[in-house]
């Protein structure tokens, strides 16, 4: 009997092998009228296991809009009225302290947040790409390190231990026009894995149809088409999204099974707050279930899977 991975490989798309070109002929044509979507926020959820075996969830959110740009750090999804999250507004008109530290009392622990954003460099995303660091220390144990932190952590590591850190999920929010739009980002689907370029395109394309009065004459109609590319390889191409607004596809990334699911229903049918959701979820090769079905099954508590979400909303 064949293993599950070999069975899935017959109907899935391999991204990690650059020589694989099973979908190379199914490339998605990009119209010149596509408008890039603007990234508005990025949220990452980390699971920390301290040396005392205490577990803490940390949610780090970078955001950017017309009035401000900043960072928010929350712990264990606590009620903001009980434990307000740590907030920084890095907009130059309001934010004056781009380097410093803050002590936070969290349950029976002492948390220290150290940051330096004075030389942070940004591209188009709200998250800086270099020239910064953010360090979270819990009870004299390094819990989280973000950015260029070699200088400060080299001094701290001499007497401070490191917690076990696992990235559970990443959520990216973007805004785009209601017609032709595209969104590009990079994603890492496992610890130590390579970063992959993810591009989502939604455009209106013309498709030919025969006229009922004459088999020789033809007419064309416009239909929305969804394309998702990973490392410039087309993994899905969905036509007529008004009817195919939800679906899923299994792909291989870095040797992992990844379920790609999309839901663009509200993008087309909710004119007020319409949006689209794209979900990537890793699962082990021994698990034959789609991750949406796992809610009805008993999961291994020690098995950690990664989720990557992209939320797109219509810009005004």
TrEMBL record:
Tell me which domain of life the UniProt entry assigns to the organism this sequence originates from: Eukaryota
Please name the InterPro entries in this protein's record.
DUF868_pln
Extract the PANTHER family matched here: EXPRESSED PROTEIN (PTHR31972), OS04G0407500 PROTEIN (PTHR31972:SF48)
Q: What is this protein called?
A: DUF868 family protein
Q: Which source organism does the UniProt entry give? A: Pisum sativum (Garden pea)
């Amino acid at each position: 009997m064949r293993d599950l991975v070999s069975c899935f490989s017959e109907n899935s798309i391999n991204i990690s092998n650059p020589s694989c070109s099973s979908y190379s002929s199914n490339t998605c044509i990009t119209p010149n009228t596509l408008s890039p979507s603007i990234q508005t926020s990025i949220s990452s959820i980390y699971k920390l296991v301290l040396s005392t075996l205490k577990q803490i969830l940390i949610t780090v959110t970078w955001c950017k809009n017309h009035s401000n740009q900043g960072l928010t750090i929350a712990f264990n999804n606590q009620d903001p009225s009980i434990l307000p999250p740590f907030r920084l507004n890095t907009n130059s008109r309001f934010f004056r302290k781009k380097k410093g530290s803050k002590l936070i009392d969290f349950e029976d622990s002492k948390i220290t947040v150290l940051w330096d954003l004075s030389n942070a460099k940004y591209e188009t995303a709200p998250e800086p790409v270099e020239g910064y660091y953010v360090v979270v220390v819990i009870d004299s144990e390094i819990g989280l390190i973000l950015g260029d932190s070699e200088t400060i952590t080299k001094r701290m590591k001499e007497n401070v231990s490191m917690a076990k850190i696992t990235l559970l999920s990443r959520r990216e929010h973007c805004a785009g026009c209601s017609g032709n739009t595209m969104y590009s980002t990079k994603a890492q689907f496992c610890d130590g894995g390579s970063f992959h370029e993810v591009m989502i395109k939604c455009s209106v394309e013309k498709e030919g149809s025969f006229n009922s009065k004459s088999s020789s004459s033809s007419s064309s109609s416009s239909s929305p088409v969804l394309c998702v590319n990973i490392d410039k390889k087309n993994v899905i191409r969905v036509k007529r999204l008004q009817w195919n607004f939800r679906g899923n596809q299994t792909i291989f990334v870095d040797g992992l099974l990844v379920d790609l699911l999309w839901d663009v229903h509200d993008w087309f049918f909710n004119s007020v707050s319409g949006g689209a959701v794209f979900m990537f979820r890793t699962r082990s090769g021994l698990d034959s279930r789609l991750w949406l079905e796992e809610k009805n099954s008993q999961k291994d508590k020690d098995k950690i899977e990664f989720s990557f979400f992209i939320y797109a909303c219509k810009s005004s």
